[in-house]
Amino acid sequence: MTEHSMTTSSNALLSLDHISLSFKGVNAITDISFAVRAGEICALIGPNGAGKSSLLNVINGVYQPQRGSVHFDGHAYRRMNPYHAAHSGIARTFQNIALFRRMSVLDNVLTGRNLHRRSTWLEQTLNVGRARSDETVQRSYAEVVIDALDLQRYRHTTVGTLPYGVQKRVELARALAAEPRLLLLDEPMAGMNADEKHVMAGYVLDANTQFGVTVVLIEHDIGVVMGLSDHVVVLDYGKKIADGAPAEVRSNPDVLAAYLGTRH
Ligand SMILES: Nc1ncnc2c1ncn2[C@@H]1O[C@H](COP(=O)(O)OP(=O)(O)OP(=O)(O)O)[C@@H](O)[C@H]1O
Fold it and tell me: Residue 201, class by beta-carbon neighbours within 10 Å (0-12 exposed, 13-18 middle, 19+ buried)?
């Protein structure tokens, strides 16, 4: 048994317990269990179609598994929707950037603060009552995140005009602005060259250390994963084939076979 598979519910922020998910009889995830400790960076890896994105969608309530349950922050749930997930402290970025392209970086990051606003929609529209002080609080937190991710010079730039790598960073900033306890990142380095990946990995690490957020990320680049993660879970054809520290997983024969294609 690996150190990670022994993680108990007392020190796990997130645990998945025998999750199975199928689409019209086709199994996307089969009986997957693993735990993520508070404060760690956990990478989900595996070949295309292995079930990685589906698993993130189960964690934040987009998909509801036919079997199993998810435990987050001491609560068990099978049926959770993305709204409740966000309210309980789970934020998410997407494989294909999902930002407001015509809005500025600052306004996009501010949308991440919506859950923390205390004023009503009417007060915000009229800019009266609690809305003014609320706006000051939300903006100052947004600026903290913008500074941490070195986005200051793009603050007022329209997102759609920015290079792809910077847009991915804005998406990370918007998710962090929500002050999540758990950050789900679906291929945050997809489409980047080696230098850009290195830079982005640094920002993910900063998010983890400076903001104390636990991270579950999907990434295909094994070099990046090994350097960045504390814990790696490997999926293949919807099943978990390895779960442990990066060095342990890298030498696992099942993982080598899945990646070299000798198992099928
Ligand atoms: N909404 C859906 N409807 C039907 N089938 C789906 C749906 N979402 C995922 N699947 C199927 O579930 C399986 C797992 O897909 P998933 O996208 O989770 O894999 P992945 O590991 O994230 O792949 P990739 O690395 O290519 O993004 C695939 O066979 C996929 O076709």
Answer: buried
pLDDT > 70? residue 198: yes
* Residue 203 and residue 147 in one domain: no
User: How many domains does the structure of the chain reveal?
Assistant: 2
CATH of the domain at 259: 3.40.50.300
Report the nearest atom of ligand 1 relative to the CA of 21.
12
Complex-level ipTM beyond the 0.90 threshold: yes
Q: Is 62 helix (H, G, I), strand (E, B) or coil?
A: coil
Q: Residues 95-131: pLDDT tens digits? A: 777 778 889 999 999 998 877 666 566 666 666 566 6
For residue range 62-77, what is the model confidence (pLDDT) as tens digits? Answer: 999 999 999 999 888 8
Q: Say if ligand 1 is within 6 A of residue 53 CB.
A: yes
Q: Which of 19, 27, 52 to mutate to test the pocket of ligand 1 (most atoms within 8 A of CB)?
A: 52
The verdict on the CB of residue 25 being under 6 Å from ligand 1 is: no
User: 71: helix, coil or strand?
Assistant: strand
Task: Please work out whether the CB of residue 57 comes within 6 Å of at least one atom of ligand 1.
Answer: no
